[in-house]
Amino acid sequence: MAALEEAMVTQVAASAGLVALIAARFYPQMVPQKPTYPAVTYQVVSAPRESNMGVDPGIVNARVQFSAWGTTWKSARDVAEQLRLAFQRWRGTVAGTEIMDTLEWDWHDAPPELVNDLKVFQRVCECRISYRE
User: Fold this and answer.
1) Concatenated DSSP letters for 65-120?
2) Rounded to 5 degrees, what are φ and ψ at 10?
3) pLDDT of res. 47
4) How much is the pTM?
5) How many Å apart are CA 83 and CA 103, to the nearest integer?
6) pLDDT confidence band for 88 (50 / 70 / 90)
7) How far apart are CA 100 and CA 96, in angstroms?
8) Computed over its alpha carbons, how large is the radius of gyration of the chain?
9) In whole angstroms, what is the distance from residue 130 CA to residue 107 CA?
10) What angle do CA 58, 105, 1 make, to 5 degrees?
11) Above 90 in pLDDT, residue 16?
């Protein structure tokens, strides 16, 4: 697991409000077959590294997308709010990775989907996490 993903998993586990809703259902890219809801998926959309003349500072500005999934619109919205509380302005050293800041929190609702004959709602949240490699 990459350093940023390991730090995100650690941050989720440390967020009581989020754990109360999703337990350990925090998955890379997609939920497993026949999942329990609510749940969260995440993916790193892009991760450009800063460059300077002569030496690179080791700073990465990752764009991360979280999807909060629930069997009701309210449950997806509640999970998304706990994600925001856990990650907005997130800083510090987590799982050995220096998280410099988390900015540009944004979200939108995706249309409901039918998954295993169950209507599932999704709120997509995006942010930029700056960290040092």
Assistant:
1) EEEEEESSHHHHHHHHHHHHHHHTT--EEETTEEEEEEEEEEEEEEEEEEETTEEE
2) -65, -40
3) 85
4) 0.91
5) 13
6) very high
7) 13
8) 15
9) 19
10) 45
11) yes
